[in-house]
Here is the input.
Amino acid sequence: PVQKVVAQEKLNYLEEKERKKLERQRTRKIEELEQSILELEEEIATLEDQLCLPEIYADYEKASEITTKKQTLQEQLETCMAEWEELHV
Here is the structure.
């Protein structure tokens, strides 16, 4: 019986250690996602500001290029936000 108790305690310790490791990884990933979300939002805001400039608005090619880049960043932002929400469940 003593060996069984010791074995169970060791198993509990290892399970707890693994749980804490996974929680640290999850926390780190959440922090990385929050940083990415912040950066993407800033980049999108910058592009939106550029699209309001008369010289950009008048240049179809440049406006199209900026719009395409903005859409790509929006998609990345949505992916990051979905992953962030999933980790907060």
